[in-house]
Specification:
The complex is a heterodimer of chains A (about 110) and B (about 120). With about 110 residues, chain A is mainly beta. Chain A has no helices and twelve strands. The chains are: A mainly beta (about 110), B mainly beta (about 120).
Chain lengths: ~110, ~120
């Protein structure tokens, strides 16, 4: 079975500060991909960052970076210099075999001015 | 490049009525997904198509939900009869990769269903 767990239902951060969202997963696949998706209020879900499991180097996209700990099955998202536009639901997702995606329950991030 | 198109954006119906949602994926994307997202929860896969074949419909309530993807392009999700617990956003997504696990998902804006 493949599962994704996000244990932080809601978080707040002050504008310009750094915040880390947690995600743990479980999979029996040897090769897989991990994603963070962002869903702004009443808007479509978009990809934030992607990590390939066989790559040891952590992925980075501008202000967004991940801490991928394969042995611990942990995949956290760090947002630096938080902006008001970062306010959204964030979903961690696992792409396992047969192009199947498994999503966590989400973390609601509120960036305060 | 056009994104994933969904319609209608909003629908309000009475319980026991029927509703249909339409999705047109990004051109060339072989894999199409329908997800149900209840408020405050993560997306739950209802059905996954690869071209015009079903890959996974294990969580589709087949007594009331049906979906088709004729000609391997656009898709329709139908609910008949609707129940109160079907109130949710129905998300359509597509992916370029037809096998393997390298593709990202591209989502539409969703169709919000309210069942009264």
């Amino acid at each position: 079975a493949q599962t994704v767990t996000q244990s932080q239902p809601e978080m707040s951060v002050q504008e310009a500060e750094t915040v880390t969202l947690s995600c743990t997963y479980d999979t029996s696949e040897s090769n897989y991909y991990l994603f963070w998706y962002k869903q702004p209020p009443s808007r479509q879900m978009i990809l934030v960052i992607r990590q390939e499991a066989y790559k040891q180097q952590n992925a980075t996209e501008n202000r967004f970076s991940v801490n991928f700990q394969k042995a611990a099955k942990s995949f956290s998202l760090k947002i630096s210099d938080s902006q008001l536009g970062d306010t959204a639901m964030y979903f961690c997702a696992l792409n396992g075999n047969f192009n199947k995606f498994y999503f966590g329950s989400g973390t609601k991030l509120n960036v305060k001015p | 490049e056009a994104g994933v198109a969904q319609s209608p954006r909003y629908k309000i119906i009475e319980k026991r009525q029927s509703v249909a949602f339409w999705c047109n994926p990004i051109s060339g994307h072989a894999t199409l997904y329908w997800y149900q997202q209840i408020l405050g929860q993560g997306p739950k896969l209802l059905i996954q198509f690869q071209n015009n074949g079903v890959v996974d419909d294990s969580q589709l309530p087949k007594d009331r939900f049906s979906a088709e993807r004729l000609k391997g392009v656009d898709s329709t999700l139908k609910i008949q009869p609707a129940k109160l617990e079907d109130s949710a956003v129905y998300l359509c997504a597509s992916s370029f990769q037809s096998r393997g696990n390298t593709g990202e998902l591209f989502f539409g804006e969703g169709s919000r269903l309210t069942v009264l």
